[in-house]
Design goal:
Number of helices: 2
Radius of gyration: 15 Å
CATH superfamily: Hotdog Thioesterase
Distance between the termini: 47 Å
Strand content: 35-45%
Amino acid sequence: MQNVEAMDAETLLAAGWKRLDAGGFTGTLSPLWLYGTDPERTLGFIVDERHSNNHQGSLHGGALMTFADIALGYRAARATGHSSLVTAQLQIQFVASAKVGNFVSCRPELIRSSSQLAFVRGLICVGNKTVGSADGIWKVLEQKPKP
């Protein structure tokens, strides 16, 4: 039940998804949804009008890129054990459109990690339809002691 085309919060909760309310820029896609455990954890969100770029109700490409950055970055953080990472490189291929009401999901895959870098990729799907493919590199920020 990880990839479903249309979904509402009640159905997601009943299926075992956990709601994640995010702040800052990440909050533009909030609430996000988490399913499963690492390393097989899937992230998702329900497309609404805020994410639409036209009268046809299509998901804006920038919103899809933001979701890719969040989902893949989440996996990079879990892999490195650090919460302070920056996106060093992210590329995305737009494959198909997602519409308002669709549930968009991604199960990021760790390719490789070191103490300083994580390489992650993932397919972004609506149900069984791939709407995007992304890969990127995340850099661990140096943790400075607090005075």
